[in-house]
Amino acid sequence: MNTAEAIPAGKPQTNRGIPPGPKGSLIMGVMRDFNRDTLGFVTRCRDYGDVVRTRFLWINAYFLYNPDDIESLLTTNAKSYRKARSLRSPFFYRLVGNGLVTSEGDFWRRQRRLAQPAFHRQRISSYGDVMVQYAQRAIAAWQDGAHRDVARDMTRLTLEIVVKTLFNSDISNDADHIGETLSRLVKPFASQATLKWILDNRLPTPGHRRYFRDVSEIDRIVFRIIAERRARGYDEGDLLSMLLQAQDDDGSQMTDAQLRDEVMTLFLAGHETTALALSWSWYLLATHPDAEQRFHQELAEVLGGRTPSVSDLPKLKYAEWIAKETMRLYPPAYAVGREAIEETEIGGYRVPKGTQLFAFQWVTQRDPRYFDEPEAFKPERWMNGDPSPKYAYFPFGGGPRQCIGNYFAMMEIVLLLATIGQRFRFALEPSHKVEVLPVLSLRPKNGIKVIVSHR
Ligand code: HEM
């Protein structure tokens, strides 16, 4: 059934009643179908129409597939929503607290205003050299013909980069073991057990207790770093320095507790997503020799063998298209969610207060109504700029809650692609099957196993 075809184009009708959608089972609603095959299920639901009603246990949810409705959710009618309840788990909250991703209302607005200067292009550009240097250091030991999991390599590399740019500290010789503890902490988020973990988060299991111990350990380290920084009082060039200096109009600054929450939020939001965009890029390049060849040609023309830097970014166009096209097909954040805080309307349907609404980058960015050959990897489709309608493509979300790190991420992806792509290429291990695993982000289930060759 495709009810979308039955709806006349043009101005949305109002009072269309209840959106169509799958019934699901009496008690569970669609929970089982969703958990069994998340991406397949949310893709199939599009056949019901542009706004689809579903139910998870007793919780009503709308799935949105039309870019105009997604724009309404994230931008034009953003005031009617807050973040979805799935983000409000105590387990997640213990780690990121009231940081930018989770906070709401006036508190969030003030924090965003205070954090914004840390993400100005000029400031972020100063991290370009760190990104390149760290990438060079990571690949220095790679051997021709070696078998590697490039997804694991990218996670380690972006972790090192975020720790350096946040705290000006180096994991590999850090006496605090901050990187080590942080990487142990994100482990439960990096396995399929995540959802179970979040559901079970009130049970005092050994894994659960270890998690809370690790968070306390990180708290101690982060609070100590903050205290030392306050005492020294000078700009060390990292993100923490910027957050420490940030002042509101009335002269007020962030408290230690707020700083701690923002630091943890940036650490978590700021490395795994970027690592995934890179990992999927290497996978797509390894499986599309024509695109790989054009990429190598651009690297030769623009860099001629020299180390890349931020000033090369405007010329590394093809690398940028690879990043954009990869995030179209494999969006690291494959869904955004909101909860209606008042009764409102979307796509002509009434939205009762408390409804959970989801838009899926995974589905809309592969929708044949907005992209020719939507399943094909074609970096050159970005030659003519961003797609229309605007919210057919939203890897970084949009509106007031748009990703604050989008420029940081794009710069890191392109610089790392250039630095690594100049020296190495990857072939997929023949027996290795690459599969997507949608957990909190869109991960390769068993990594991306490659054979490395020198170029
Ligand atoms: C490819 C990499 C990245 C992707 C795909 C990505 C994606 C997103 C998306 C979709 C959102 C919006 C979520 C929503 O509306 O519910 C978001 C928010 C956010 N991202 Fe990113 N992100 C990336 C990299 C980064 C980096 C590098 C940082 C920081 C260094 C960062 C920090 C944040 C923060 C703090 C928010 C919350 C902003 C707010 O609500 O004010 N992200 N990201």
Keywords:
alpha+beta; 12 strands; 3-stranded antiparallel beta sheet; binds protoporphyrin IX containing FE; 45% helix; 455 residues; disordered N terminus; 5-stranded mixed beta sheet
List the helices and strands and how they pair.
Elements: H1 31-36, H2 38-44, E1 51-56, E2 59-64, H3 67-76, E3 81-83, H4 90-96, H5 105-115, H6 121-125, H7 128-139, E4 147-149, H8 150-167, H9 178-186, H10 194-199, H11 206-232, H12 239-245, H13 256-269, H14 272-287, H15 289-303, H16 317-329, E5 336-340, E6 344-346, E7 349-351, E8 356-359, H17 361-364, H18 406-423, E9 424-428, E10 436-438, E11 442-444, E12 449-454
Parallel strand pairs: 2-8
Antiparallel strand pairs: 1-2, 3-5, 4-12, 5-8, 6-7, 9-12, 10-11
Commentary on this structure:
- A hairpin with a 2-residue loop joins β6 and β7.
- By secondary structure, this protein is an alpha+beta fold.
- The relative contact order is 0.17.
- The protein has a five-stranded mixed beta sheet with strand order 1-2-8-5-3. Strands 4-12-9 form a three-stranded antiparallel beta sheet. It has a two-stranded antiparallel sheet with strand order 6-7.
- It binds protoporphyrin IX containing FE (HEM).
- Protoporphyrin IX containing FE binds next to α13, α14 and α18.
Would you kindly provide a brief summary of this structure?
45% of the residues lie in helices and 11% in strands.
Helices and strands, in N-to-C order? HHEEHEHHHHEHHHHHHHHHEEEEHHEEEE
Bound molecules: protoporphyrin IX containing FE
Strand order of the largest sheet: 1-2-8-5-3
Q: Radius of gyration, Cα only, in angstroms?
A: 22 Å
The stretches of 5 or more residues where confidence is low (pLDDT under 50) are: 1-12
Tally of DSSP helical segments: 18
Helix content: 40-55%
Structural class: alpha+beta
Mean pLDDT: 89
Shape call = globular
Distance between the termini: 51 Å
